[in-house]
Amino acid sequence: MAPVTEAVLTISFGEGPHxxxxxxVLYYMNFMQSSINKYNPETxxxxxxxxxxxxxxxxxxxxxxxxxxxRFVATLRRxxxxxxxxxxxxxxxxxxxxxxxxxxKPENIINDGKADPRGRLFTGTFGYNPSGKNLNEMILPERxxxxxxxxxxxxxxxxxxxxxxxxxxxxxxxxxxxxxxSMDCIRRYDYDIETGNISNCQKLFIPKDHGINGICDxxxxxxxxxxxxxVYQGSLVxxxxxxxxxxxxxxxxxxxxVTSLAFGGENLDILxxxxxxxxxxxxxxxxxxxxxxxxxxxxxxxxxxxxxxN
Length: 310
What we know:
The protein has 310 residues and is mainly beta. The chain is 1% helix and 51% strand.
């Protein structure tokens, strides 16, 4: 059994883990605190900051920009922005707005995002009701969309009627895009690496059909093209066959709200798992969530793609 250990404590709602294979650090977001975080597993050091101009605005991911040191793509509700952060305790600064999405739906928020093998940014949205008392009341059904933002900043809507846009992954040949709508399933699309277009949507994995409680959240892929998905409200990480959708392995995480995951470490063989605390009580000394490391899985991931933004 692969050991699951706590790497970082005191997280309210971890999201968007991204392993920078050049810097050998993990970036992740603390969604409910609107903070950006960096974890160095070699030293054990954790660095936290916020965006200077928008200290209380949710941001869900942070992706390094290729050939731009200390520059990242991040989000501010429905805006995609370029920020500068030197990885220290100084505040991150928004340099410019790259693109805007869902401007006709002011209640919407951008959720997960990743760069594809060519550096194009893929991200999606969900409809949010802040007065909701639970997940079902907080999320507005089928109000979100999936987008591709090209390197020149052009916005392309690829799919719509999404409830909670979430995890993304590409197979090793760049011919398949895997994508999570958390209130639906893991979808599989044919992918055109030259154009960035998707087609032939198929439902690959529906949790309830496999007796799984909870919903699919963040997603990553290993070098054997098997998927690894976080199961929110399920205390699980699942390894899934990317071709058949069958469950290969289950890993229990000591937290119900498993949010996302990414391969990292020197050999890209450590699975970093973010979790959340649905109580969201800021008065608690420990927020009841952590960043976990899972070692000894016998698989490796791919280096995460960086964004290419002109």
